[in-house]
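Work Package 3 (structural annotation) set out to generate three-dimensional models for the target panel prioritized at the project kickoff. During this period the team completed the workflow that converts sequence records into discrete structure tokens, so that structures can be stored uniformly alongside our sequence database. As a representative example, we reproduce one entry of 135 residues exactly as it appears in the project archive.
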Amino acid sequence: MRTRTAALTACLLLALTACGIGDEPDADTSTAARTPEEEFLANARAADFDSWKTAAPTDAELAAYPPQWCAGLRTGRGVASLLEDVALYPVGEKWGTDKPDAEELVLLGVKAHCPEFGDRVAEEVRLGGRSRGGG
């Protein structure tokens, strides 16, 4: 009886293993982590800014901004200071971004590229871009 029970148990375990029961599920590649750039671009597009209704930036144009914003924040600049810099204000040859949208865009870029500044930038955006720090 013990031999038969052991053999039956072994067969069941072998069958379950062959079917993949008990194995870890395969990773779902559709939910793989996005790069900071992909996250920023997806969130920027999802924001559906009114100022981009007639003409919107390309992904390449948008992607250039967040690393520069993060570099500015690392030197102590605030949102207002960043957006006063024509090189850092999100505007292109045929598109522009209204200031409230630009402030929100900076926040989206920071959350994706340098989240350590997220709380500070969120507070500044809440206050209308007025920085607590130097610029």
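The CA atoms of residues 37 and 63 lie 6 Å apart.
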